[in-house]
Amino acid sequence: MIRWEAHTCLPLHPDASFAPLEHYRTAGVHYVSINVGMDMNPLSQILPVIAAFRARLLAAPDRYLLPDTVADIERARHEGKLAVGFDLEGALPLLERPEMVALYRDLGVRQIHFAYNRNNSVAGGCHDAPQGLTALGRRMVEAMNAAGVIIDCSHTERRTTLDIMAHSDRPVVFSHANPLALVEHGRNITDEQIRACATTGGVVCISGVSSFLGAESPAASDIVRHLLHVAELVGTRHVGLGLDIGFGEPGLDDDPPPPFDPEYWWPAGAGYGRGIRQMRYAPVDTWKQLPEALRAAGMDDNDIDGILGGNMARVARQVWERPPA
């Protein structure tokens, strides 16, 4: 069965090391979605990252594959390769043009969310005043559905996510979000949001970030606690994993160009302290520990296979492989 990492973060620099991808491959993961840009990153930073990452992945066909379909990921699994897709965290890189969605898809972007913590012209962010989905946002939902790109509600505020899920005719996901009922943090999501996501046929993927888990040194047991909450609410078919590891690299500066204010994007009042520098992450090897941890929590093999990849693969089949109108 496919093992699917719904979101992770390499440095946003064309020369970022691919060593973390190798760690995922050796941990038995078959597909990884890596961030290639956020709302605070200009196109002058995002496009060189996409171009460089694509070129390096294509130059190593014995190790990596850029998938178009879930069948491609299955092929990568059988051949011992890692399939890699890209994701965007926020709508600002779309430049308020819905037709940009299809262009990004052609470049390998397979999921996008509409706001990164703060409001924009498309959607509301989770650390800003409630805004909801705008008229332009509704057009973006339609563009995402038409292009076959997964809509990701992570980092967006409650009202916006509910608007998106009401408007989308395809399943919607949270690629890295945890239950607010377990940990009070603005990045975590309510039971109402979890249920609405499941109603679309979507998946809530649990993050391995310390502050969102409520664990100083995140471990498999912490992740399982959050997985179980979602499973008890909506069933195991709607649970996945997006560890959201932020891989730093000494000497490689991937900050956005000035003016860039970390305090704006990660406000201290929302619990970030020194931006996101103080965050701790569950390690990649958590993937090796989770099957047994889930078994100990009462999950059977079908549940485990779904949570660790089958559920996201189901969503991808419904979204990526949508036949043209």
Assign the CATH class. Alpha Beta
CATH fold-level topology: TIM Barrel
Amount of beta strand: 5-15%
Q: What would you give as the CATH superfamily?
A: Metal-dependent hydrolases
| DSSP, total strands | 9
Shape, per Cα inertia axes: globular
CATH architecture: Alpha-Beta Barrel
**Radius of gyration (Å):** 18 Å
Q: Quote the distance from N terminus to C terminus.
A: 31 Å
- Helix tally equals 12
Give the rounded overall mean pLDDT.
Answer: 96
Pattern of helices and strands: EHEHEHEHEHEHEHEHHEHHH
- Given the helix and strand composition, which structural class is it? alpha/beta
Describe the sheet with the most strands: 9 strands, parallel
Account of the protein in words:
Strands 1, 2, 3, 4, 5, 6, 7, 8 and 9 form a nine-stranded parallel β-sheet that branches. The mean pLDDT is 96. The protein is built from twelve helices and nine strands. It has 325 residues and is an alpha/beta fold. It is 39% helix and 13% strand. The protein has one domain: Alpha-Beta Barrel (TIM Barrel). InterPro entries: Metal_Hydrolase, Pept_M19. One of its GO terms (biological process) is proteolysis. This is Membrane dipeptidase (Peptidase family M19). It holds the Pfam family Peptidase_M19.
